[in-house]
Amino acid sequence: MGLLWKLLVASVGIALAVYFYTGQDDFKPEMLNGKRAIVTGASSGIGEQMAYHLARMGSHIVITARTEEKLKKVVSKCLELGAASAQYIAGSMDNMEFAERVVKEAEKVLGGLDFLILNHIGQTYFNYFDGDVGHVRKLLEINLLSYATMTVAALPMLKESGGSIIVVSSMAGKVALPFTVPYTTTKFALDGFFSSLRQEFYFQKTNVSITLCVLSYIDTDTAVNAVGGAIDTPPASKEECALAIIKGGALRQREVYFEYWSTKIPLLLRDWAPDLLDRMSRNVYNLEKIGKH
Ligand SMILES: NC(=O)c1ccc[n+]([C@@H]2O[C@H](COP(=O)([O-])OP(=O)(O)OC[C@H]3O[C@@H](n4cnc5c(N)ncnc54)[C@H](OP(=O)(O)O)[C@@H]3O)[C@@H](O)[C@H]2O)c1
After folding, report:
1. Is 44 in the pocket of ligand 1 (CB under 6 A)?
2. Whole-number pLDDT of residue 19
3. pLDDT reading at 20 higher than 70
4. Where in the sequence is the domain holding 259, given as residue range(s)?
5. Most exposed among 14, 126, 129, 228, judged by the fewest C-beta atoms under 10 Å?
6. Share of the chain above pLDDT 70, in %
């Protein structure tokens, strides 16, 4: 049993190393040149950084979020960085008519679509579940149903271009972490919706890739302010994270893990040793800091 276990761990290690070190360099920024992309939640954080990377690569970009002033600034910076074109549409993704309208307006200005990058999230809390089921419902609308609505609206264009859907999720959408009950619920649901849809695309021979991005703790203002020292692990760079997402989407990868080892290793434990993983993840939190900010 001891030997079998060692062989299994060694094989998994080798397979991971081969997977990680091959295929990663196939990416070329020119892959995004002239491509048409919608990026949601692009007024700040990872979405904003994705817009800048796409701009440097010469893409046509339509960005969206609620705050018009921030979107205007992101659009100007995208144009300075070399975007083929950049526009914004302001509104809230708790409204499914707005979600659909973003796709329709993007169609008018872009004339088609290559990348649908779904990244926005509604505001929530980092604390024990407060029993407010209404908040869970609201967050499901913003974090899940608007993604589904935009996907349905964009599919005809994506089928025509052989395009890609990039879904920004989280470790909290693969492993049940504490203090984020409403958020975790929505991120698990995203995996169900998009991974099931990917299987159907295979049967239907739909040439549209779906990339689910599993992110660790990233240094955006929202995340750092919400966590407020309650997690010991240092956050990873939002610029690097944004680039990893775009590369994975352009390479039509099934899933992106960022940072790779801090997401992939716990996921290996998840199904084989869930109690161990639960215990390990509980050790990451400073309980005295939960809800103190
Ligand atoms: N940062 C992390 O540690 C981390 C870890 C794992 C996964 N992720 C994932 O990465 C993605 C981006 O996170 P982030 O940290 O970059 O967040 P962020 O900086 O807070 O950005 C969220 C974006 O969503 C927009 N937004 C908020 N409410 C909205 C609404 N009702 N309708 C439309 N847009 C709305 C915000 O702009 P407005 O306020 O202007 O609307 C903003 O542009 C999310 O999917 C998140 O789950 C992040």
Report:
1. yes
2. 61
3. no
4. 31-120+133-289
5. 14
6. 91
Per-residue pLDDT of 257-279, as tens digits, reads 999 999 999 999 999 999 999 99
User: Which one of the listed residues 52, 88, 147, 183 is annotated catalytic?
Assistant: 183
Domain count, the chain: 1
Asked, for residue 26, whether it belongs to a domain, the answer is no
Which protein residue has the closest C-alpha to ligand 1 atom 16? 45
Single-letter amino acid code for the residue at 162: G
Q: Is the CB of 75 under 6 A from ligand 1?
A: no
Tell how far the Cα of 120 is from the centroid of ligand 1, in angstroms: 4
Instruction: Report CA(83)–ligand 1 centroid distance (Å).
Output: 22
Whether 52 sits among the annotated catalytic residues: the reply is: no
- Ligand 1 binding pocket mutation candidate from 121, 123, 124 (most atoms within 8 A of CB): 121
In-domain check, residue 171: yes
Residue 56 lies in a domain: yes
So what's the pLDDT on residue 229? 85
Say yes or no: CB of residue 214 within 6 Å of ligand 1. no
Q: Please report whether residue 255 resides in a domain.
A: yes
CATH assignment of the domain containing 199? 3.40.50.720
User: Does the pTM of the predicted model rise above 0.70?
Assistant: yes
